[in-house]
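User: Here's a structure from my thesis project, written as structure tokens. My advisor, Dr. K., wants to see whether a designed sequence matches the one we expressed. Can you design one independently, without my sequence as a hint?
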């Protein structure tokens, strides 16, 4: 009899953060659960109180402008090149509407919602393993940089070269920078972007506030205007705009958090190496490990109340979030020792 925990339709195989579904699969697991299944910062930004008006009134134009200005300063680009979205997932789903294309190459394996969004729009989607050259017949190319889940990074030169190749035939490049806040040098936001480039940004991952639902598209003023019209008025909530403004303005917190995440990543890598399971990729928000039987490791960890991210397409890899405390990190390592 097959184990229902290996059902390819299992919710945990679609996305991280499905703790309730995993708890149902492992009712006798050690408590409390340690959720390391996402790449969300375990030390969230401590925002000040949100005004009553943000909840009671429709978001004003001035509140939206302040949030956009704060984000633009944080990203290093002009305010006219940003539109805020209710999460980066919304930005992903907008792109096929803003740039309708017939044949789309997606550098993968990567975050699955990109392919699903283009497929729903009727595009032919092809997963590619390397950046395409000028002769390859794609109308659009999607690159997640750094990549989720393996952390692969592509240089500015390579991405802009691809943008130039696509621009010559009316094509677009979409660069998902959801995890780029951990290292500002990764992002293309501060460069002079060609008009056929769209960058997608996530607020919740680096700032540790995924429930706020705030994201951004950085592109040409024309595409930004089209995205705003497509979403309609008041797309981003007042509380999200207030919290986003506070976080993006706090450069000191951002810099200190980058250093803290780097230190925590180093400590986790050292610990993983001590049990013979070294990280082979990732970012400072998650690590990418390789093992002989990843699904067995995943089940063993889950049985001990440690939830990591597995993938239907890989029998040898897991993604592990950054533990918030030394105790949590040690619990992960002790669970790995039992594999």
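Assistant: Designed independently from the structure alone:
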């Amino acid at each position: 009899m097959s184990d229902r925990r290996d059902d390819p339709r299992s919710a945990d195989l679609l996305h991280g953060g499905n703790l309730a579904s995993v708890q149902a699969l492992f009712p006798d697991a050690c408590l409390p659960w340690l959720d390391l299944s996402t790449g969300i910062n375990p030390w969230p930004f401590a925002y000040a109180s949100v005004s009553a008006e943000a909840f009671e009134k429709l978001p004003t134009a001035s509140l939206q402008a302040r949030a956009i200005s704060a984000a633009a300063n944080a990203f290093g680009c002009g305010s006219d090149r940003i539109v805020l979205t209710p999460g980066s997932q919304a930005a992903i789903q907008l792109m096929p509407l803003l740039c309708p294309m017939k044949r789309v190459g997606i550098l993968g394996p990567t975050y699955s919602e990109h392919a699903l969004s283009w497929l729903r729009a009727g595009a032919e989607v092809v997963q590619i393993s390397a950046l395409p050259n000028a002769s390859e017949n794609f109308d659009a190319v999607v690159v997640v940089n750094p990549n989720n889940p393996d952390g692969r990074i592509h240089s500015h030169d390579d991405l802009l070269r691809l943008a130039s190749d696509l621009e010559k035939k009316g094509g677009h490049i979409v660069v998902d920078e959801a995890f780029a806040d951990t290292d500002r040098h990764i992002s293309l936001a501060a460069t002079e972007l060609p008009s056929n480039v769209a960058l997608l940004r996530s607020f919740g991952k680096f700032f540790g506030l995924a429930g706020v639902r705030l994201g951004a598209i950085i592109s040409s003023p024309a595409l930004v205007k089209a995205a705003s019209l497509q979403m309609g008025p008041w797309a981003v909530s007042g509380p999200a705009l207030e919290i986003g403004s506070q976080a993006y303005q706090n450069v000191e917190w951002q810099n200190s958090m980058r250093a803290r995440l780097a230190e925590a990543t180093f400590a986790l890598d050292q610990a993983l190496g001590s049990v013979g399971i070294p990280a082979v990729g990732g970012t400072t928000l998650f690590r990418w490990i390789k093992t002989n039987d990843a699904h067995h490791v995943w089940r063993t960890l889950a049985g001990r109340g440690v939830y990591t991210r597995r993938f239907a397409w890989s029998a040898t890899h897991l993604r592990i979030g950054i533990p918030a405390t030394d105790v949590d990190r040690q619990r992960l390592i002790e669970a790995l020792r039992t594999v």
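When you compare it with your expressed construct, this may help: The chain has twelve helices and 13 strands.
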